[in-house]
Amino acid sequence: MDLYSMFCCGRVSDRRERGKKQQTWRVFSLKELHAATNNFNYDNKLGEGGFGSVYWGQLWDGSQVTNMQIAVKRLKNWSNKADLEFAVEVEILARVRHKNLLSLRGYCAEGQERLIVYDYMPNLSLLSHLHGQHSAECLLDWNRRMSIAVGASDGIAYLHHQSTPHIIHRDIKASNVLLDSNFQARVADFGFAKLIPDGATHVTTRVKGTLGYLAPEYAMLGKANESCDVYSFGILLLELASGRKPLEKLSATVKRSITDWALPLVCERKFGELADPKLNGKYVEEELKRLILVALVCANSLPEKRPTMLEVVDLLKGISKEKLAELENLELFKSPQAADYNDGASVAEDSSDFISEEKDFKPEKNEERG
Ligand SMILES: Nc1ncnc2c1ncn2[C@@H]1O[C@H](COP(=O)(O)OP(=O)(O)OP(=O)(O)O)[C@@H](O)[C@H]1O
Ligand SMILES: [Mg+2]
């Protein structure tokens, strides 16, 4: 019996004990996933990220009248030595369930192939609505944006504070916030860095995170903790409110960060100028202000000044009016040159979208476990 059959057998008895909710998770065969994705046809490809390509597919289950749509992530450059480790890590991630997290539906590990199966999210990602293929349709009205902000913060707070083990996402960005059929946020790709096998020297691992979302201390030292996620989430909130990208090209050689653009406007209390023009002025003023203040507090360059994700959830939900008033009176929002914020430096053009391990640092293993 191979490692996966052993693992799979364990799962079946486990699953019976854990009840119906967990039964949706299973091990897939490669043959099944080939059939579901039309042999990983280029036309089925949803996109490509740091770990491989994602394909749309459909499964025909004999017991179901309709087909089920899935998204299959085909990991690249995988080590065939880390079978059990891979299976164990996927199993841990599969247990993490929350209404605002995209949970795993299963995996496949045969030969050199490692694939992860998710539910297909029909409204794709936040990225596609803000800057991509759906941006012209203007489907993100203010209510949807607010509910995406609150939902995503809830999902990340669950990862940080409630899931066992605690999980640091390390790659919060617009393409990792997927939208279900009701435009509810589902945060994807959490805990992915953990799937990188130990000692797999030929696997090109990269420090998680995309430039523009990376907390300065993580970019410099490679030390990830919850507050790095809070920073990235702050950038994401600014992006959601303004429709701007985390880094904007000012000239051939210089880019400006979204925080450097937003902070002076906030200091002058020009919140309306921060709103995405696509909203056509249709937003709730108080909520816009709340979202932007929270965003900038999260994206503080000093990690100790950032709120926790639980605090972010409460702030976004408007639970505490006093706390919000406190935020508004922070020194940070009095002068754009406030000492404890960004150093104001624009980002040089020659930086690549990803910071890779080739650039000399390696994230610590096991650091996201609490
Ligand atoms: N379950 C899904 N349903 C619909 N679209 C998806 C799903 N999973 C991923 N995608 C989309 O497929 C594309 C590729 O995803 P992938 O996660 O590989 O890359 P990424 O999110 O751009 O980067 P990263 O590797 O850092 O996560 C993205 O546009 C993503 O939003
Ligand atoms: Mg992704």
Automatic annotation (TrEMBL):
Ranges annotated as biased composition (Basic and acidic residues): 356-370
The question of whether Kinase is a record keyword is answered with yes
| Keyword annotations from UniProtKB, A to Z | ATP-binding, Kinase, Nucleotide-binding, Serine/threonine-protein kinase, Transferase
Q: Does the keyword Aminoacyl-tRNA synthetase apply?
A: no
Q: Which PROSITE patterns does the annotation name?
A: PROTEIN_KINASE_ATP, PROTEIN_KINASE_DOM, PROTEIN_KINASE_ST
Question: Which residues does the annotated region (Disordered) include?
Answer: 342-370
Q: Which residues bind ATP?
A: K73
Source organism, top-level taxon: Eukaryota
The Protein kinase domain sits at 40-324
Molecular function (GO) terms listed? ATP binding; protein serine/threonine kinase activity
Tell me the SMART domains matching this sequence.
Answer: S_TKc (SM00220)
Give the family per the record: Belongs to the protein kinase superfamily.
Name used for this protein in its record: Protein kinase domain-containing protein
